[in-house]
Specification:
The protein has a two-stranded parallel ribbon with strand order 1-2. The longest helix has 21 residues, at 91-111. The protein starts with 12 loop residues before the first helix and ends with a helix. The chain has 11 helices and 2 strands. The model has no long low-confidence stretch (mean pLDDT 94). It has a single domain (13-195), classed as Hypothetical protein, domain 2 (Endonuclease III, domain 1). It is an all-alpha fold.
Length: 197
């Protein structure tokens, strides 16, 4: 069967699998949310496919995104990461992952969980958008700007509003699959999906 998808995933099998199985699926696991936030920051200026192809290397290089470990990385570890061809070797982005791990630990002490902190920007329920084209979809929203400002105040870096909105899309805080995409309906709550049948 030929499924209709969002055009952005193209035909690359890895990208198609990511679109079909991960993008837009609500995530509530703190470790996974932290990983997604760091990787969205690493993507700045690059395509998401570039990061997706390096994601397993990132998981190995960054101790499976264990914030407790990353928060303790020193200059020696930074030098090792800068020599690792499996990740984006950008000092600012590597240092950002360390700062974000430290900020995450501080946030967790104050707000219980990253999940609780982040999902409040959408009232703990995924927003159901109805975009007909990629051109109609915003690159940032008021909620993403609020998230960005709050994360920056807490010491996070590489969390501008555009990065935050891409994160919200990936983590399922918004359903931004285009309405003709088969995943749009699949990711709607049952009551909404039934009403459109």
């Amino acid at each position: 069967m030929n499924l209709e998808r969002c055009a952005w995933c193209g035909k690359d099998p890895l990208y198609v699998r990511y679109h079909d199985q991960e993008w837009g699926v609500p995530v509530h696991d703190d470790r996974q949310l932290f990983e997604m936030l760091v990787l969205d920051g690493a993507q700045a200026g690059l395509s998401w496919l570039t990061i997706l192809r390096k994601r397993e290397n990132y998981r190995q290089a960054f101790d499976h995104f264990d914030p407790e470990r990353i928060a303790c990385y020193d200059e020696r570890r930074i030098a090792q990461l800068l020599a690792n061809p499996g990740i984006v070797r950008n000092r600012l982005k590597i240092e950002s992952a360390i700062k974000n791990a430290q900020a995450y630990l501080a946030l967790r002490d104050r707000h219980d969980s990253l999940d609780t902190f982040l999902w409040r920007y959408v009232g703990n329920t995924p927003r159901q958008n109805t975009w007909r084209s990629l051109a109609a979809m915003p690159s940032k929203t008021v909620e993403a700007e609020a998230m960005s400002n709050d994360l920056k105040r807490l010491g996070f870096t590489f969390v501008g509003p555009t990065i935050c909105y891409a994160f919200m899309q990936a983590a399922g805080m918004v359903n931004d699959h285009l309405i003709h995409c088969f995943r749009h309906r699949e990711l709607q709550p049952p009551a909404i999906a039934d009403a459109t049948t």
